[in-house]
Amino acid sequence: MASQLFAILWAQWKALWNFRPAEGRTGRLLGILMALIWYGMWAMVALGAWFATETLDRERLRIGVPWGLMAVSVYWQLAPILSASLGATIDIKKLLLYPIPVGQLFVMELLLRAVAGLEMLLVLAGGFLGLLRNPAVPVWGPLAAVPLFIAFNLFTAAGVRNLLERLLAYKRVREALVFLFVLAAALPQILVYSGMPRTARRFFAQSPSFLWPWTAAGRIAVAEHALPFLVLLAAWTWLAWLFGIAQFRRGLSFDFAARSAADRSTARDRGWVEALYRAPRLLLADPLAALLEKELRSLSRTPRFRLVFLMGFSFGVLIWWPLLRSSADEGGSAASYPVLISVYALVLLAEAVIWNVFGFDRSAAQLYFSAPVPFWKVLAGKNLAALVFIVLEITLVTLVCLLVRLPMPGPRIVEAYLVTLVLCLYLQAFGNLTSLYYPRAVNPDHSWGRASGGRIALFLMLSYPLLGLPVLLAYAARFAFDSQAAFYGVLAFAAASGAVVYGVSMDSALATAETRKERLLAALGESAGPVVAE
Amino acid sequence: MESMPETPPAIAVRHLRKVYGEKAAVDGLTLSVPRGCFFGFLGPNGAGKTTTIRVLMGLAPPTSGAIEILGLPMPARAVEIKRRIGVVPDESVLFDRLTGREFLEFVGRMYALDRRVAAERARELLDLFELQSSPKKLIAEYSKGMRKRVTMAAALIHRPDLFLMDEPFEGVDAVGARLMKDLLIDQVRRGATVFLTSHVLEVVERLCDRVAIIHQGRLVMEGDMAGLRNGSETLEDAFVRLVGAERAVEKLDWL
């Protein structure tokens, strides 16, 4: 009964067609532009693959194609994880109500995995066309290899995604997985900056082991011992299918609510944590204290926020470590790394606590408008909570840096705090507005995913240079005058301007909240179509 | 004379347990709902009603116990069961960016109705539930009562044998509620079974012929309405007596 699959696709198409994005025409154009840039970039890579596979001789293809296919597989499986987004998924909670056979849901899942790996399909298409036009390669080679290789990747991606989604629902496993991802992501950098060992270079100069699926696909593509490799690749694809469907089935029957309740029931009560949560009431009056306390409690219990926070001081340090280490060895400006890592951590945290501040509240955001609380206090409470976590993050970054014995001069630590906080002021000024203009409901239990829409996230990334300009000016002053005083003078001016900008933006946010509150609440309570973006 | 094979009950639950963390939301529930009956499943807040109904709908796996729906084991034959049940869950299962008609068509097709049949029934149900006046309106723009109406329409589109409904009348105006009740009574007359939860005991009293009461995850009573009321008692009196909530209302001095 493929009709159900078509019905899901039809409903998703209708949902997209009916969607009237809050950002209007400009937003849509921006989205199209971003998509063109992104996929245009990958189209260039695909053209490169086409050129290479069309012109290289058979011996080079024999070595190069398996490595290329391995890179495709690695990207396909790992890129969604490292970009902190598992990609779109079926809204199982709703579709489970209907009599849809698992097979059809799995086909839907495969289609979504294909969409998530669209870049790789482009690159494979480029390589495929190049091989077809290469006179040294028979046409049937790529025709046999590429479809099977795509199927292998789709099945594996479906399995990996479902396995990860379940694993990330376990409290301790989630944290352990983050560290594994961090190490996996940092490894290539460490290899590059620490100089690739000779054994590794020798390893890459030859074809990967013949047992791997990419080697098998590569050999079939260049028509070398095609039959045994075809059997091998078919076996890999069959195993991937078994893995994919098994994980998908387990995902369907996995009870996330029960898992989360189990974590909560085993959580110990820690008096000092409770004291920290209650600290705001010692310093502030209600309702601001109550709002801040609520934010501290709920954010620290939100898996998605915990993950980003954890990544800030672990991933942040590791990803920059090789660069900083080598720079420090050469007596360069490595001493700026506390600033670099802290700013990086701020960018990670901004996703959860600055750009879409009502995302985790979802429908509960109604309370902010129905309670007799001035709305500026709501925003201020959220901004203060973000500030608390950012200061905590910088402190943890400093401690981790000290732990891995990176030289940490005192003035640089102070600089890290000041620069990050000034930058944070500008981000929050802008973030209060984006939270009201581009609100998006976020599931706090899904630890992996983006808090703002993909296009908006890209737009924000492009805004960073502009928002960071005042801080950059401070560095420019230090460079131009070779003076710390000039640096701190400009930074102080940036902080004062930031306060003014924050105040103006708060006024604008208050007016916007009044005029857009209906749209805001509707967007936060919305659940679009059968497919949800993670 | 050969005896006729006995028709299995619409719902047969044995020793059902559903545990969240260390708390059993449903604790050893055993229940039988005969076919063709209007069954009320009652209990105070947090008693385990919604959890039970979610397990019956196949939305949450049971921790242990056996479930048979329309004679088929759940979840082993979940797809076959789901084809024959209509559901109104407690939380929204609507897709906000579809119109009411698009959503109903979608649901019809999920139950393998022919496209034309699904479209035709969607139109008729929208008429019946008075949702036709604004055909271009997205579900996101619907009021709470309209959302409930469209959910109810979706539960009816494939003419199921069993209805599982969690607070179906919540948020619906008197006219809509009356319509929904009449429809459900008609369905029971044609032989369908209705299993519903509701906090509005007057509604349950008027509609249901059998009732079960659950408290702290355990069944405290199951039987017909007359047996439950124990003579002159109202359902509310019986309910309060059975769930042990009959305590003096203490005044709060600040209230």
Task: Describe the secondary structure blueprint for this structure.
The complex is a heterodimer of chains A (534) and B (255).
Chain A: H1 3-18, H2 24-55, H3 58-82, E1 89-90, H4 92-95, H5 102-116, H6 118-133, H7 140-167, H8 171-193, H9 198-205, H10 213-221, H11 226-253, H12 256-266, H13 271-278, H14 280-283, H15 288-300, H16 303-329, H17 337-353, H18 366-370, H19 375-403, H20 410-437, H21 454-467, H22 469-481, H23 484-524, E2 531-532
Antiparallel strand pairs in A: 1-2
Helix pairs in contact in A: 1-5, 2-6, 2-21, 3-10, 5-7, 6-7, 7-10, 7-11, 8-16, 10-11, 15-19, 16-17, 16-19, 17-19, 17-20, 19-20, 20-23, 22-23
Chain B: E1 11-20, E2 23-33, E3 38-42, H1 49-57, E4 64-69, E5 72-74, H2 78-83, E6 85-88, H3 100-110, H4 115-128, H5 144-156, E7 162-166, H6 174-189, E8 193-197, H7 201-207, E9 210-215, E10 218-224, H8 225-229, H9 235-242
Parallel strand pairs in B: 3-8, 3-9, 6-7, 7-8
Antiparallel strand pairs in B: 1-2, 1-4, 4-5, 9-10
Helix pairs in contact in B: 3-4
